[in-house]
């Protein structure tokens, strides 16, 4: 297990280094001067020169890359031109919204999807299976921003049970802040739950067709015992893969939902930084999201070994 974890960790570190090089290079190949692009074409030469010095654009390329990489390792992501504050402080403030939102959404998605997927697989070919997968297909097809607007209209405007948008901050109280994340979490969770339920069902049905499952049934085990003791654990690898991808998506891909609910999260920060041409902020947030995705994939790989002992023996 230790050898397997070490190999995966080294691959993750190498991937992160390559990703940092790609992100840095993309900023370099932006047509024109990045400083002039950020300030606008009407900026004075003095302003452009000052920003070039601030961004270190007057230094050799290799020195700038390793200086930027060292800043990443120490948490120094530069200073935002638009907000005039360190990028790290901006990200820290927005992560306090996006991370709980993603975690709650993933928890809701998992709690809904796994029972539905298992139930549909156990009732294969029956009306309940068709109904469950039909509802799941609708969940995949319906755009989450439309669903979010529907939730706002029903639960915020009509029933007045929860706020329609905004985030008061965790300093306002845990209950008040959590209440403002309920509708966004549901809007994000249900489409992801539909995808995860279909994957769970398909993975279980594939495992249920294996020879060792038929052998277990022939030995007298009930269908329920076979499903939960043998099939479910072996069907978890594709489910874990989707869970890892979904968490990364929920953390990085919430731009529309955060704008619908006026949440000051990472997605909205990236959107604002792009519209304001604040490339330093975009660069820092992108690297954070890439690092998160790589870390999640590493944890998923380690969970594979916990679920499937063959991977540990193979390493």
Automatic annotation (TrEMBL):
ABC transmembrane type-1 domain residues: 95-300
Transmembrane as UniProt keyword: yes
InterPro entries associated with the record: BPD_transp_1_N, MetI-like, MetI-like_sf
Pfam families membership: BPD_transp_1, BPD_transp_1_N
Organism: Phyllobacterium bourgognense
UniProt subcellular location: Cell membrane
Stretches that traverse the bilayer: 9-30, 95-119, 131-156, 176-197, 235-257, 285-307
Keyword Transmembrane helix (UniProt): yes
The family this protein is said to belong to: Belongs to the binding-protein-dependent transport system permease family.
PANTHER family, A to Z: DIPEPTIDE TRANSPORT SYSTEM PERMEASE PROTEIN DPPB-RELATED
UniProt keyword list: Cell membrane, Membrane, Transmembrane, Transmembrane helix, Transport
A cellular component annotation (GO) from this entry: plasma membrane
Protein's recorded name: Peptide/nickel transport system permease protein
Superkingdom to which the source organism belongs: Bacteria
GO molecular function, a single term: dipeptide transmembrane transporter activity
Membrane topology category: Multi-pass membrane protein
Gene3D superfamilies given in the database record: MetI-like
């Amino acid at each position: 297990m230790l050898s397997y974890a070490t190999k995966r960790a080294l691959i993750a570190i190498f991937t992160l280094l390559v990703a940092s090089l790609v992100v840095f290079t993309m900023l370099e190949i932006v047509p024109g001067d990045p400083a002039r692009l950020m300030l606008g074409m009407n900026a004075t030469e003095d302003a452009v020169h000052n920003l070039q010095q601030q961004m270190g654009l007057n230094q050799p390329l290799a020195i700038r890359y390793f200086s930027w990489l060292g800043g990443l390792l120490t948490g120094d992501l530069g200073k935002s031109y638009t907000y005039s504050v360190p990028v790290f402080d901006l990200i820290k403030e927005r992560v306090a919204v996006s991370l709980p939102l993603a975690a709650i959404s993933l928890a809701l998605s998992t709690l809904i999807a796994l029972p539905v997927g298992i139930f549909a697989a156990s009732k294969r070919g029956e009306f309940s299976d068709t109904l469950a997968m039909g509802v799941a297909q609708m969940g995949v097809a319906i755009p989450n921003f439309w669903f979010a607007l529907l939730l706002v209209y029903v639960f915020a405007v009509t029933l007045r049970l929860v706020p329609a948008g905004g985030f008061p901050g965790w300093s306002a109280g845990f209950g008040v802040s959590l209440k403002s994340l309920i509708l966004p979490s549901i809007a994000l969770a249900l489409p992801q739950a539909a995808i995860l339920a279909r994957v769970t069902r398909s993975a279980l049905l594939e495992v249920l067709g294996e020879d060792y499952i038929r052998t277990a049934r022939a030995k007298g085990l009930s269908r329920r015992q076979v499903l939960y003791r043998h099939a479910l654990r072996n069907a978890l690898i594709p489910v874990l893969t989707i869970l890892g991808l979904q968490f990364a998506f929920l953390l990085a891909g919430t731009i529309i939902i955060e704008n619908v609910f006026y949440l000051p999260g990472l997605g909205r920060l990236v959107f604002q930084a792009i519209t304001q041409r604040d490339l330093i902020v975009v660069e820092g947030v992108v690297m954070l999201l890439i690092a998160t995705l790589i870390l999640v994939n590493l944890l998923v790989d380690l969970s594979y070994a916990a679920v499937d002992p063959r991977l540990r023996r193979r390493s």
